[in-house]
Write a structure and sequence with these properties.
Residues 140-316 form the Extensin-like C-terminal domain. There is one protein chain. The protein is α+β, with helices and mostly antiparallel strands. It has a domain at 142-270. Helices cover 30% and strands 16% of the residues. The longest helix is centred in the N-terminal third of the chain and has 32 residues, at 14-45. The chain is elongated. The termini are far apart. 18% of the residues are buried.
Length: 358
């Protein structure tokens, strides 16, 4: 290619260069200004993070400045008269001699800043304490039924099928009289606390004084039946008995210190005594069943605290008269002064007419 100044002057005139000179100056100034901006941006990039650096992976390497750490002051030497420290035993790796063998960068580093070489905290074995469960809140009846009144330890609640069982149950083993003598319940009765308290109050207040009037002291109560998960009168399909709710007691007799026994359904027991027991029982219990109520209570007395509408109560116990001492084998002879039997006379007349053919 042949190029010369003469030809160039033909292509670009001097006027064109003069016109382009201001543009070239502007470009040079702009390049200088951009260079200054690039330098300041580079300096700012060292401290600020732009969101597009990580996007394109062009994040420049940032040299980390050397962190200067202040020397940790050492504690004063331990006085000679100071007592021995409990934790004087330390691992050999944490003694000052061992610390001198570490690297210079690590030697100037505080012990708190080195998690790998930090002294493990001394853990004391956890004190094993027995698990304490909150004691159940005692009912008012349970608090009142103390050992000064009855020997009746509490037993767990019973929850059976069909509502059988109950809560606040006790095992009535004995009744403590005011003179500290005990009336043993044989066998021990499983009852609700309120029923056991009613039995204890009845024996202490009514039966014990009655036995004293008869010339002896009461020592035992014959428990015929207490808690039993069954229907009324043990009839299949019958409603649940109060025995099934631990709310009833069947009493057959009381034992005396003299060795005798007072059977509540025995006709040979004085009638006045049995009537007194009847009235005291009907005044304390909502249900009293004995001889004459049905065929199921001819040999014992049923007591319970069943709650009914309008506080309805049942007291069915016939106190029968004593049986005669000697039963007559033959009827007594007819007295002579007795009038003639009209029935026998009519029978004789009818028989005579029949024989005569009338």
């Amino acid at each position: 290619m042949n190029c010369s100044a003469e030809k160039a002057s033909r292509k670009w005139s001097d006027g064109a260069f003069r016109r382009a000179r201001p543009a070239m100056v502007t470009v040079a100034v702009a390049a200088l200004w951009l260079g200054m901006q690039v330098g300041s941006a580079e300096a700012a990039r060292r401290h600020a993070v732009f969101p597009w650096d990580d996007l394109f992976g062009v994040r420049p390497h940032r040299p980390h400045a050397t962190v200067r750490r202040a020397a940790v002051p050492l504690p004063k030497p331990r006085p000679a008269e100071a007592p021995a420290a409990a934790d004087a035993k330390q691992p050999a790796s944490e003694t000052p001699a061992a610390a001198g063998s570490t690297r210079p960068a690590e030697a100037a580093r505080p012990a708190e800043a080195k998690p790998a070489e930090a002294k493990p905290a001394e853990t004391k074995p956890a004190e094993t304490r027995p698990a304490t469960t909150a004691a159940p809140q005692l009912s008012a009846c349970r608090q009142a039924l103390t050992e000064a009144i009855a020997i009746a330890p509490s037993i767990p609640d019973i929850h059976g099928a069909g509502g059988c069982g109950g809560e606040d149950l006790v095992r009535l083993e004995a009744i403590v009289l005011p003179d500290q003598h005990k009336v043993t319940v044989t066998p021990a009765a499983i009852l609700r606390c309120k029923m056991a308290a009613a039995i204890a109050d009845w024996v202490r207040s009514d039966i014990a004084p009655l036995a004293q009037e008869s010339g002896s002291a009461i020592t035992g109560l014959d428990n015929f039946d207490s808690f039993e998960c069954r229907g009324r009168n043990r009839v299949a399909g019958a409603p649940l008995s109060e025995h099934g709710r631990a709310n009833a007691l069947d009493v057959r007799a009381f034992r005396l210190a003299s060795g005798k026994s007072i059977s509540l359904t025995d006709r040979n027991v004085p009638r006045a005594l049995r009537e007194t027991v009847l009235h005291s029982a009907c005044a304390r219990f909502s249900t009293v069943l004995g001889p004459g109520s049905d065929w199921y209570h001819e040999d014992h007395i049923h007591l319970d605290l069943m709650e009914r509408h309008n506080n309805y109560r049942i007291c069915q116990w016939n106190v029968y008269d004593p049986l005669p001492q000697v039963a007559p084998l033959l009827p007594a002879e007819r007295p002579e002064e007795a009038p003639p039997r009209e029935v026998a006379k009519k029978d004789d007349e009818a028989k005579g007419k029949k024989e005569n053919g009338e």
